[in-house]
Write a structure and sequence with these properties.
By secondary structure, the chain is α/β, with parallel strands linked by helices. It has a single domain (about 20-285), classed as Class I glutamine amidotransferase (GATase) domain (Rossmann fold, 3-Layer(aba) Sandwich). The protein has helices at about 5-25, 45-55, 100-110, 130-135, 200, 215, 255-265, 280-285, and strands at about 25-35, 60-65, 80-85, 115-120, 140, 180, 190-195, 225-230, 235-240. Strands 2-1-3-4-9-8-7 form a 7-stranded mixed sheet, with helices on both faces. A two-stranded antiparallel sheet has the order 5-6. The chain is globular and about 50 Å long.
């Protein structure tokens, strides 16, 4: 027996189902904000991640969630993730290499989930952890090999890549790392932010250890990579962004846009022709800051 549904009711059902389909199709981006670190205005991982979420909330087809204090309480937080960003302290205490977490993130990467690491979150010990980051994002910061001066590179030109859409030349002072460990022959890697470090920058002091390192000084005149994107043989994507020490820099449209574009790209969301549009006010920059003692 054929059941006839009035056109008006059928239309109503479609209108109800349509937004549900759109919602189900949203690409989920998980932002992991590290524990409280450094002094006021520096390493504001939670405030920075919430700013990025605020910006991404305006992008159709994207759903963003922030997990504070270093790591989600439940592994289910990663269910359905299209991309994960780790913006946190690194080194031996890197949140993604504690206990079974390295294997968890590796399993996500092998499923095609995009992985991004920002600032200190791209430093891990060489060995198993370093090899994992080479696979996930193409490179990492290595203690006593890489360096971390506070300086103001000038990013004047960019490659033709979705992550650079709408990004204009800019220059801000930050703890821009360089001389990083990359995959052999830069396989699958596209440098995004590149600039020359002056001899004065190379001679230090670096933030820690103060240096200088002879191998850094010997590379005088060489271009240095401060951000890159990487593709994995399985089709997964990743990026490393060495800036992000100073929270105020998220107020710079181009600094912010190149990271927003990268998050969309690793989640396999089409980056708009002019890049991700966002507005961040002075008031926004003061929101969600960690409760840190003020400097005298």
């Amino acid at each position: 027996m054929r059941i006839s549904i009035p056109k008006s009711r059928l239309l109503a059902l479609c209108l109800v189902a349509f937004p549900l389909v759109l919602h189900a199709a949203d690409k989920k981006i998980v932002l992991i904000a590290g524990k409280q670190s450094h002094g006021p205005g520096d390493h504001e991982f939670r405030a920075g991640s919430l700013l990025l979420k605020k910006c991404l909330d305006g992008v159709p087809g994207v759903s963003t969630v922030v997990h504070s204090n270093g790591w989600p309480a439940e592994t289910s937080a990663f269910d359905g993730a299209a991309a994960v960003l780790i913006y946190a302290d690194g080194g031996e205490g890197h949140p993604a290499i504690q206990g079974p977490r390295l294997k968890l993130i590796d399993s996500l990467a092998k499923k095609g989930v995009g992985i991004g690491c920002a600032h200190y979150g791209m430093e891990v010990p060489k060995g198993e952890a370093g090899d994992a980051l080479l696979d996930w994002i193409g490179g990492h910061y290595e203690h006593l090999y890489s360096c971390n001066p506070m300086w103001q590179p000038e990013f004047k030109s960019f490659p033709n890549h979705p992550v650079t859409r709408g990004v204009k030349p800019f220059s801000v002072t930050d703890e821009w790392y360089f001389n990083l460990r990359f995959r052999p022959s830069m396989s699958g890697i596209t440098p995004i932010l590149v600039a020359k470090a002056s001899d004065e920058v190379r001679k230090g002091p670096y933030v820690y250890p103060k240096g200088p390192y002879q191998h850094i000084m010997d590379a005088s005149g060489r271009d240095e990579i401060m951000m890159w994107v990487a593709e994995r043989p399985d089709g997964g994507r990743g990026f490393g962004f060495t800036g992000g020490h100073r929270h105020v820099n998220w107020g710079n449209e181009n600094f912010r846009k190149v990271v927003l574009n990268a998050l969309l790209w690793i989640a396999k969301v089409d980056v708009p022709a002019d890049g991700a549009k966002s507005v961040v006010t002075e008031g926004d920059l003061k929101q969600n800051l960690d409760p840190k003692p003020q400097k005298n």
